[in-house]
């Protein structure tokens, strides 16, 4: 057998043994699918969750999907409550309860979505309905919440927590 045929046979054999090569995007999509299956989501629920993720990705160019229901954003992160789930949990770590760490401003909106801000800045906000907040930043740090026209709606000085109507809040400045 010629050296070329031997090399071609070895290459074909190696490809069969190694299996298909997945791109990073394909392996990430597979991981997200495994997360939704493990959470017991139906195909329709998974599609609905991905539509919510896609809407947030479209509205925030800095956002990156890091699990089936969690996005990393310029200001922090957002974990969407998965359809059919009673609690909001990152599907990549479903046994770990979400916490509001020291130095963070955390918000749960009326849909159960959890927003965790830990970087100073001025951010668009997509929360809706009535929910809660935990201003767990350094004592004295003022979190500001803005109307659609950019005027300040209200503010809160850390440390503290409370309830709020998120539908009229369009922008947030955590600190």
């Amino acid at each position: 057998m010629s050296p070329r045929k031997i090399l071609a046979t070895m290459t074909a054999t190696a490809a069969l043994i190694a299996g298909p090569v997945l791109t990073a995007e394909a392996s990430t999509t597979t991981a997200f699918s495994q997360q939704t299956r493990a959470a017991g989501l139906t195909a329709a629920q998974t599609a609905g969750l991905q539509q919510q993720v896609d809407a947030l990705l479209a509205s925030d160019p800095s956002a990156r999907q890091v699990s089936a229901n969690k996005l990393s954003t310029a200001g922090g992160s957002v974990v969407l409550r998965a359809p059919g789930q009673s609690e909001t949990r990152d599907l990549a770590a479903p046994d770990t309860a979400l916490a509001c760490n020291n130095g963070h401003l955390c918000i749960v909106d009326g849909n159960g979505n959890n927003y965790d801000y830990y970087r100073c800045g001025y951010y668009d906000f997509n929360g809706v309905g009535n929910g809660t907040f935990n201003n767990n930043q350094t004592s004295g740090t003022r979190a500001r919440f803005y109307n659609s026209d950019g005027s300040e709606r209200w503010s809160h000085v850390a440390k503290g927590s409370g309830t709020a109507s998120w539908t009229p809040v369009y922008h947030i400045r955590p600190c």
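Residues 2-26 have pLDDT under 50 and may be disordered. Residues 43-59 form the longest helix (17 residues).
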